[in-house]
């Protein structure tokens, strides 16, 4: 009891300094942005090629703006006005279409931002984007674990020396606890984010608003970064109270840590709208207003569009610049052009141009934006270990990852073992033995498609974290491969221990463990194929369809359906020799038949010279026996090259993984 009390006191004392700072509205010095004082953009124009007409279509048209540190900007406008495209452009993200072209200037502290997303002084290096449909949270982790892994991957606690590392770790832990409190997630700190099929967990998970807050907190857990936090409709799908809560928290964080916060927002409540310091109102890619939120009513009153009393100003503004539901589109377009022209010639537009010019003049002689020394990135080994740790936690909580597959493989083993139950070493059992070998190896591979949903969840998180500069394709590929090895080996042992002995395959220890080896290599190759297909098409139905088709092809040309000696040249040389199931089936056949002898009897079960009716004629026919090699000869299989085949299998597995790595490398 005394020890517990002491521990609690120490824990409270460790948290106290940061909690006091939060109550006072003051952030610890290491988390305050002292680098980026302003983000400005001038003449941002984005065009894409229309898919139907093949003509250029303007998404953004000469959009300007500037936001200072500690301020929060609302980007408003009807659907399709270019809000999301603008946010991606400001965040240094790739444009939504490969045919898109962009012009204009991004300014950090009045200086043009570098073009390389991850380079010092670039917008991508100091911004974080939280997208509207943020699927990048692992449902099998708790709120606290999600933040802890985000902090470890960002390297916010990196330091040299044991004492410094300890202090950095303590600072990181306090930072996590402070964010949990600041974003109102204390009661959910140990609650799973939420996903389907969690073993032994009855938590319903976080609500939509809580997930939004957690997504934002993940971006803020990295000390000193982001300087610019960009959010695409953070209140979408939330009720007015939850929406207000999210924006209020963002405003507090912006002021406390001197961050620049930019959020697109769709029809907020009046109280939520009034939380924003600045407003950018857009329609059809053009600016209709940019300036203080409190001044928008006066501006529109000055051009003859006074805001009605007791009406939500955000709702009024959106209705005014939205022409989608107007019956007379020509008149609506003319009205919209007049409103845009009024802004372009207004005092507010001139003031904005002056502010941009002043920012450029002020930044012309300054130093480029530098990242803080605390922002050292962890090495590849550290990132891989962190990703493996996170995947391990997910693997034993979420049955979709490996639990379902273990049940499937166990069921398959029981089915094979009981259908092909205790086959005798007679010629009548030879074809059933071959069927069992083919069926077991092929369907073990086929069932690997059950890994697609779990991998796609990891893929979505990878894309987000890659865009945020946390790690790349190499760390993702290596960690994903390594974490799967022990589980796949376990599956191989379980499947083999049940099916092998029930079926009565070659009853020796050497033959059994050789069988386990080939089942294991089969699963490694099958999972590597799933990873490749799901990386190319990270959607459940297309990835499942492709994996199923590929497995159907491999099953058709692996040598069982059509012996290699009869397979036509197109499939033999085009697919057969790099079909991993071919090497699995061939070596399982050799494992069973190369060193085994089977009996064959004559009519009525008689044996002896002249009475045998052996289906395979070998040198033991006069003894009413069939040497197993005779069975292999019809396929052209010869023992003695298992080492080479293992090497080929490893090359195929490596090839799939490298191909998957290339796909992840090219993904943006």
Automatic annotation (TrEMBL):
Superkingdom of the organism of origin: Eukaryota
Keyword Transmembrane helix: yes
Membrane topology value: Multi-pass membrane protein
One term under GO cellular component: membrane
Region ranges (Disordered): 97-122
GO MF annotation list: ABC-type transporter activity; ATP binding; ATP hydrolysis activity
Regions that span the bilayer: 399-421, 433-456, 477-503, 515-537, 544-562, 646-664
Bias (Low complexity) ranges: 97-108
Compartment annotation: Membrane
SUPFAM superfamilies tied to this protein: P-loop containing nucleoside triphosphate hydrolases
This protein's UniProt keywords: ATP-binding, Membrane, Nucleotide-binding, Transmembrane, Transmembrane helix, Transport
Compositionally biased spans, kind Polar residues: 112-122
Matches recorded under Gene3D superfamilies: P-loop containing nucleotide triphosphate hydrolases (3.40.50.300)
Residue ranges occupied by any ABC transporter domain in the UniProt entry: 39-309
SMART domains given in the database record: AAA
Main location: membrane
Family statement drawn from the similarity comment of this UniProt entry: Belongs to the ABC transporter superfamily. ABCG family. Eye pigment precursor importer (TC 3.A.1.204) subfamily.
Name of this chain's protein: ABC transporter domain-containing protein
């Amino acid at each position: 009891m005394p020890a517990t009390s002491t521990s609690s006191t120490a824990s409270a004392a460790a948290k106290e300094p940061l909690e006091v700072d939060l109550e006072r509205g003051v952030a610890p010095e290491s988390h305050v942005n002292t680098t980026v004082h302003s983000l400005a953009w001038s003449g941002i124009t984005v065009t894409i090629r229309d898919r139907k007409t093949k003509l250029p279509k303007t998404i953004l048209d000469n959009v300007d703006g500037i936001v200072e540190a500690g301020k929060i900007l609302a980007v408003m406008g009807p659907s399709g006005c270019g809000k999301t495209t603008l946010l991606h452009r400001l965040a240094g993200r790739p444009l939504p279409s490969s045919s898109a072209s962009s012009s204009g200037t991004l300014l950090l502290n009045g200086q043009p931002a570098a073009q390389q997303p991850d380079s010092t002084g670039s917008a991508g290096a100091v911004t974080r984007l939280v997208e509207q449909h943020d699927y990048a949270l692992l449902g099998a982790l708790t709120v606290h674990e999600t933040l802890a892994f985000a902090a470890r991957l960002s390297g916010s606690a990196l330091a040299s020396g044991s004492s410094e590392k300890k202090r950095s770790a303590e600072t990181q832990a306090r930072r996590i606890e402070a964010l949990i409190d600041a974003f109102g997630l204390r009661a959910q700190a140990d609650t799973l984010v939420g996903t389907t099929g969690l073993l032994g967990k009855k938590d319903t998970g976080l609500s939509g608003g809580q997930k939004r807050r957690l997504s934002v907190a993940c971006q803020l857990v990295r000390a000193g970064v982001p300087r610019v936090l960009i959010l695409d409709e953070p209140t979408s799908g939330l009720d007015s109270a939850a929406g207000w809560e999210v924006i209020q928290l963002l405003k507090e964080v912006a002021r406390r840590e001197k961050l620049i916060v930019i959020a697109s927002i769709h029809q907020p409540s009046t109280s939520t709208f009034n939380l924003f310091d600045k407003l950018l109102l857009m329609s059809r890619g053009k600016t209709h207003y940019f300036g203080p939120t409190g001044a928008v009513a006066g501006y529109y009153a000055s051009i003859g569009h006074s805001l009605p009393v007791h009406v939500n100003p955000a709702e009024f503004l959106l209705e005014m610049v939205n022409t989608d539901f107007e019956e007379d589109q020509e008149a609506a377009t003319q009205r919209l052009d007049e409103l845009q022209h009024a802004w372009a010639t207004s005092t507010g537009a001139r003031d904005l141009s002056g502010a941009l010019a002043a920012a450029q003049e002020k930044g012309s002689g300054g130093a480029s934006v530098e990242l803080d020394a605390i922002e050292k990135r962890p090495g590849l080994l550290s990132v891989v270990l962190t990703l493996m740790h996170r995947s391990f936690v997910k693997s034993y909580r979420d049955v979709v990852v490996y639990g379902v597959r273990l049940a499937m493989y166990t069921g398959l083993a029981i089915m094979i073992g009981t259908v092909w139950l205790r086959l005798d070493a007679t010629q009548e059992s030879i074809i059933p033995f071959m069927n069992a070998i083919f069926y077991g190896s092929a369907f073990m591979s086929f069932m690997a498609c059950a890994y697609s949903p779990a991998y796609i969840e990891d893929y979505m998180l990878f894309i987000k974290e890659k865009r945020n500069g946390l790690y790349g394709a190499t760390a993702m590929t290596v960690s994903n491969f390594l974490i799967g090895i022990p589980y796949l080996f376990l599956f191989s042992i379980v499947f083999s221990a049940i099916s092998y002995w029930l079926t009565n395959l070659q009853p020796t220890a050497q033959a059994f463990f050789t069988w386990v080896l080939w089942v294991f290599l089969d699963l490694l190759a099958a999972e590597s194929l799933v990873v490749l297909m799901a990386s190319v098409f990270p959607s459940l139905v297309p990835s499942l369809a492709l994996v199923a088709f590929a497995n159907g092809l491999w099953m058709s040309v692996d040598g069982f359906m059509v012996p290699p000696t009869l397979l036509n040249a197109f499939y033999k040389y085009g697919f057969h020799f790099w079909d991993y199931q071919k090497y699995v089936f061939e070596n399982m056949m050799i494992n069973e038949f190369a060193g085994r002898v089977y009996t064959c009897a004559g009519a009525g079960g008689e044996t002896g010279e002249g009475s045998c009716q052996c289906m395979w004629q070998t040198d033991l026919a006069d003894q009413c026996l069939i040497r197993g090699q005779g069975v292999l000869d019809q396929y052209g299989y010869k023992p003695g090259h298992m080492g080479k085949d293992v090497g080929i299998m490893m090359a195929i597995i490596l090839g799939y993984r490298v191909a998957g790595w290339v796909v992840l490398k090219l993904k943006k």
